[in-house]
Amino acid sequence: MGVKWGLMGRPTLALGTSGAIRCYRTDTGYRTRALTRDYDGRVRSVERNGRTKTAAEIALKLALRDRSQVSASGHITGASRVSALADAWYAGLIDLSPVTMDAYRRRLDVQILPALGELRVRELTAGVLDRHLRAITAKHGVATARLCRSVLSGMCSLAARHDALQHNPVRAVSPLGAKVKKAPRALTVAQLRQLRAALTYDDRAIVRDLPDLVSFLMATGLRIGEACGLTWDAVDLNAGTIDVRAAVVRVKGRGLIVKKTKTDAGARTLILPGWCVTVLAARTTGGDPRDGSRPVFPAPLGGWRDPSNTRADLRDAFAAAGFDWVTSHVFRKTVATLMDQAGLSSRAAADQLGHASTSMTTDVYFGRKVPATGAAAVLEALSHVP
User: Fold this and answer.
1) What is the Cα–Cα distance from 210 to 323, expressed in whole angstroms?
2) pTM
């Protein structure tokens, strides 16, 4: 059962396998020979010589092993190195952002390949992967381990499609630990007013052009990269709206780039509170807003503002103001929380924050691409700065 027979009654070899090794005496030693069936379906003879019978057999076995690692078409087999599988998987990734590609590459280079790269694909068992992911969790934390698990799952799925693995062993790995859900910490209206006021008296924050940026983040709930990527042609001061359609990111080897928003839901038009329109209007005195490519919040020395550097500047400014627990992301949670407290729907909050799903908004930020989310009216309360 299950064995295929050729025309002459000989069993057909399975793809990527070899038949029995035969050994012959020669004038200089021994010759070994075996038939192997390549991934194009053809059966070929492979031979190796050695001074002794054992040496000839070892040489042939090594040749058969190396031959089966990767076929001419790049086929992954159980004998392929995990490093070769990683290269094939990474090369096949499409439609991912540069930031995601960088994150995957770093996990491969730092956590996965140094420990697993020299293994054969067939050696990627659930036990091996489970132990490795536990070690990553202990050393680097659950978040890093989860991303490594995602990368390994993608690699093993590719191996399974190539029949190098019978199934994806990552699916059998035990959970990496339940997420401890914390109630999202948000600023109150009084705290927002206090922080805005403190920044206006902080000389270092003023030099770094942080007061207006922070006010804008409070008024919109934008991601820091989206705020850095906002250009004047996306601002309509007469209508009091902005179009969110890009974000600034830093990509390894390329520097700062401006990329489109992560999803269709991320591209959105938002109504600004009146006081925020006033803040932006005051910034037009620094240049011609009709120069549409000019960033609204440039770096202190000009050009695109680096989100990573800006986060560091914000941490310093917030700590000096007595809000060392606040990050730029807290403003997103604050906007969502204030909208929730005002009785606005989770759909409206998701539209404001650029989430495709309301579950992300309610699960992470509470506690459609339409401008009337209601946030502008709620956030008008911030106009009264003490």
Assistant:
1) 15
2) 0.58
